Amino acid sequence: QTIHMPFLNLFAQECATLIYNSLLYSELVMHQTYVEQVIKNMVSGVIVCDDTLKIIQSNVQADSLLEENGESLMLKPIQKFYNKCAELEIVEKSLHGQCELQIESELLVTQEKTIPIVISSTPIHGKEQRLEIVSILSDISEAKVLEKQIEQSERLAVLGRVAASIAHEIKNPLVAIKTFSQLLPNRWQDLEYQKK
Question: How far apart, in Å, are the Cα atoms of 187 and each of 173, 174, 181?
Answer without folding.
Answer: 20, 20, 10
